[in-house]
Design goal:
CATH architecture: Up-down Bundle
Distance between the termini: 102 Å
Strand content: under 5%
CATH class: Mainly Alpha
Shape: globular
Number of strands: 0
Helix content: over 70%
Structural class: mainly alpha
């Protein structure tokens, strides 16, 4: 077993971490984490194929790889809304999802369901994800430093920034400049992917504690509101006038 295979195995195992954490912490209650888990599960399966742990033909492997690249952007845009700090920004990201899917469909109709369409779609997709991850990472890091909170979100956003920064560089080197050996490119991808996913997983574990605390506060608030409403709705018991009878 050479170093490339070792890096591949480590990367494959790492890809499963976010999926397991979403299941263990029951974060599938939230659409953001469902989108994240679906993407990493698909990527995990594809990497098993590329490393020949799941024996499939080259044709199937190629179509699965193209499909995952098409699905990555809508899924990750959905997850990005978790970091949104305003209703306006959330709407913009949400509107970008169907718009990007339409762009993907038009590109496929023009160029076919192939590698060329994938390369064209990846350019704006990676650019947008890099933009959003930079925006959210800088904001969350600032909040963590100045206010001492949201460390989980800061780590997750930083992981996405590192990941998509690295993937954008790999895209430019491999698809546009066609520079470097394929083994070197794969090594860069495995290292970047592994580090990004581990950082993301640590962020999920920290953020889960915050989510649990928020849910406990919501439950407490509901209980207090329920008690308060009951007190407000208590009917006054009419007093018998006879108690004020002078002859009593």
């Amino acid at each position: 077993m050479n170093w490339k295979e070792i890096l591949g195995i480590i990367s494959i195992i790492a890809l499963l971490l976010p999926v397991l954490l979403v299941l263990i912490y029951r974060l599938y209650r939230f659409k953001w984490f469902i989108a994240l888990a679906v993407y990493f599960l698909l990527d995990f399966i594809y990497n098993l194929m590329t490393e020949n742990y799941i024996p499939v033909s080259a044709e199937i492997k190629r179509y699965v790889g193209i499909s995952i690249n098409f699905l990555e952007f809508p899924l990750m845009f959905t997850f990005m809304t978790y970091f949104s700090y305003s209703a306006t920004l959330t709407k913009r990201i949400r509107y970008s999802i169907p718009a990007f899917i339409l762009f993907e469909l038009l590109t496929i109709l023009m160029f076919g369901y192939n590698r060329k369409a994938m390369i064209i779609i990846m350019a704006p997709g990676l650019s947008l994800l890099l933009f959003f991850s930079t925006l959210f990472a800088l904001r969350q890091i600032k909040i963590t430093i100045t206010q001492g909170k949201s460390a989980g979100k800061a780590l997750m956003a930083s992981a996405l920034l590192f990941g998509y920064g690295s993937y954008t560089l790999i895209y430019v080197l491999y698809y546009l400049m066609k520079a470097g050996e394929i083994n070197e490119i794969f090594s860069m991808y495995f290292v970047a992917s592994t580090f990004s996913v581990i950082l993301l997983s640590i962020g999920i574990m920290i953020e889960n504690k915050r989510i649990q605390l928020l849910e406990e506060l919501k439950t407490t608030r509901k209980e207090l509101n329920s008690v308060y409403d009951q007190k407000q709705n208590v009917k006054r018991i009419p007093i018998d006038p006879s108690v004020f009878d002078k002859n009593f």
